[in-house]
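@here heads up, posting the sequence + SMILES for the magnesium ion run so it's all in one place. Ping me if the SMILES looks off, I pulled it from an old spreadsheet.
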Amino acid sequence: MTTTSLSSPPTFTPLSRDKLAAARVLVVGDTMLDRYWYGAVDRISPEAPVPVVRITREEERIGGSANVAYNVVTLGAQASLLTVVGEDEASHKLEALVAKTGITAHFGRDAALKTTVKLRVIGRQQQLLRLDFENTPPSEVLASQSATFVDLLPQHQVVLMSDYGKGGLTHVTEMIANAIAAGKPVLVDPKGSDYTRYKNASVITPNRAELQQVVGSWHSEDELRTKAHNLREQLGLQAVLLTRSEDGMTLFDAQGELSVKAAAREVFDVTGAGDTVIASLAALVAAGLTLREAMPWANKAGGIVVGKFGTATASYEELIA
Ligand SMILES: Nc1ncnc2c1ncn2[C@@H]1O[C@H](COP(=O)(O)OP(=O)(O)OP(=O)(O)O)[C@@H](O)[C@H]1O
Ligand SMILES: [Mg+2]
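bot reply: prediction finished. Complex structure tokens:
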């Protein structure tokens, strides 16, 4: 086993803009609408001991797998997004926002599905409440997604599964099997405690808490190594990429392991870094890099977005700078 220690500087394989432009990633997963309502708080409600927020401004952003696909596009690669939504106001908003990004959208619609919305109410500079709207997608719309997935596969070099545990990836095992049979690498951002559903994927990218939920906690790097390699072998994965926030990331593969230190200079907003990491990995693998070659770039991309407020994407120019 070869081990690259945390202290060795990462090597950056050259990354051509043309190859990235020709890279096509098929993103499948749970899409959501992130909504922010900002307002003024001047009084307490006469109805209950809660503040009354007079809404003055509204903001909306694409979230979940749509944000992942957007990260593929901002790097200069191409992304298709296969996802299920409802037939409600939020789904139309989401569609309009996605249309502006350059993502090729394939929305499966079902009136029985509530489009996932996370609504934050913000007053006096702080979040007062978050309201989540969601339910489980009906099986008919999911079955039709699986059929569309098989049709879309040949036009893409890489598949990216963005699991937010909302039920959009109910048929993930079968989709992975189809993609691998077609010779397409599959990258998975996992959720939950049952990873057998991701069996035979190329790589999964859990963060520390997510991996711990599945393999238990570790007390040393040795113990982590054993647990990660066991998981990799049990699930028939090529690699496990553990993202470690301020400690960078470690790739466990058949060759051994490879670690890189976090690349951020200043940290402002850590949300969305995981989305950026897997999106960059997928775009770069689609552009012809190996996982080991793509990893330092993905780590750098993660470092770029944690240094930004709000916008959680990195551009090609920022990446190669
Ligand atoms: N505090 C930090 N300092 C430096 N780099 C960071 C920090 N947080 C995240 N990163 C970078 O982003 C990558 C992914 O972060 P992390 O492991 O937190 O993923 P995550 O928990 O899936 O993120 P998300 O909030 O998007 O779900 C890290 O591997 C690292 O490169
Ligand atoms: Mg994550």
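MO: The radius of gyration is 20 Å.
MO: One more: The chain has one domain: 2-33+62-115+136-320.
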